[in-house]
Amino acid sequence: MAPGRIRSITHLLIPALIALVGCGSPSAGPGSTATVGPVPTTASPSSTTTSSVISTTTTVPAPITTTAVGELAEIDAEVRVPEGEGRFPAVVLVHGGAWVAGAPSGIRDLAVYLTGEGFLTVNARYQLSDDSSQGFPGALDDIACAVRYAAAHPQSDGTVAIVGHSAGAHLSAVVALTGDLYGEDCPIAGSGVPQRLVGIAGAYDVSRLGFIMIPFFGAGPNAAPDSWQAGNPQRLTDENPDLSSLILIGERDGLVDPSFAEDFNQALLDSGAQSLLEVVQGARHTDLVDPGVVGALIVTWLER
Predict the structure, then answer these.
(1) Residues 81, 69 contacting (CB under 8 angstroms)
(2) Closest by alpha carbon to 174, among 150, 146, 199?
């Protein structure tokens, strides 16, 4: 079958297949259905907790700026700088879209919210599998370059957290663990590895996704084993034990099985890294980019 035909079919089937793949995974351990509780503010970095859905009436501030500043090389991203005197902690945001679709607009509301909370935000565009023969490694090159940009921005304090949703959570996790392997052609010097990761509704073990990932890697795991290994965050957790992570999953996600988040969180802890798993009670897959649902939770974790 022609590659274009495979991509077309995969694009249609990805949401259902991710859910089906999850159904065959190991069952969640004790505590994965804990009762609803308040958002923790002093939880241990290695704990697993649950949080209720925050009110969706949160006011989202208007965008501040959307352009690059000064002599820093421009990248393909929406850049927003908070009002007031810098410097500000930076956040790179990575949208979802099943690796074949999506745009920064998909996570823009969360970017605007975080800017209003005092974070310089870089809402990155990256290479999609439908725009080329494959997404790997081009998508990771783009995101690692966005991390470098965020750290080097004249209004940034040099610290970077990366926040990704769905497919963007998978890509963010790879960059958070091995970002210095990507972005060789980036016009901005520095490290492509952020200090912190917020993974939202991600499928972190690509070996469980099968042919869903062929458009991204350009070939199956037998034909391109090195690429599948390099792009599988579940197998990369030992690469950055200094990483601090917040892993979010919706109780009613409906697309990505919670075991992806649970297994990745455990692998991070086993590597010696700090990681906190949050199950957002009542939240569906698409709810988790709504700043009224996850905004305060993310800000609380970033500011602790």
Answers:
(1) yes
(2) 199
Question: Of 250, 300, 294, 304, which is closest to residue 110 (Cα–Cα)?
Answer: 294
Residue 186, CB-side half-sphere exposure with 13 Å CA sphere: 29
| CB distance 199 to 174 below 8 Å | no
Orientation of helix 108-116 relative to helix 296-303, angle to 10°:
50
> How does 257-291 read in b/e, with b if 16+ C-beta sit within 10 Å?
bbbbbbbbbbbbbebebbbbbbbbbebbbbbbbbb
Cis peptide before 87 (omega within 30 of 0): yes
Does position 37 have pLDDT exceeding 70, yes or no? no
pLDDT of residue 34: 27
CB 264 within 8 A of CB 199: yes
Is residue 151 over pLDDT 50? yes
Identify residue 259 by its one-letter amino acid code.
Answer: S
**φ, ψ at 92 (rounded to 5°):** -95, 130
161 three-class SS: strand
Token pair belonging to 288 = 């988790």
Average pLDDT over residues 207-213: 96
Q: What's the DSSP call for residue 284? A: -
Extract the tokens encoding 84: 């007031």
Give the C-alpha separation, 14 to 9, whole Å. 9
Residues near 8 by beta carbon (within 8 Å), at least 6 away in sequence:
none
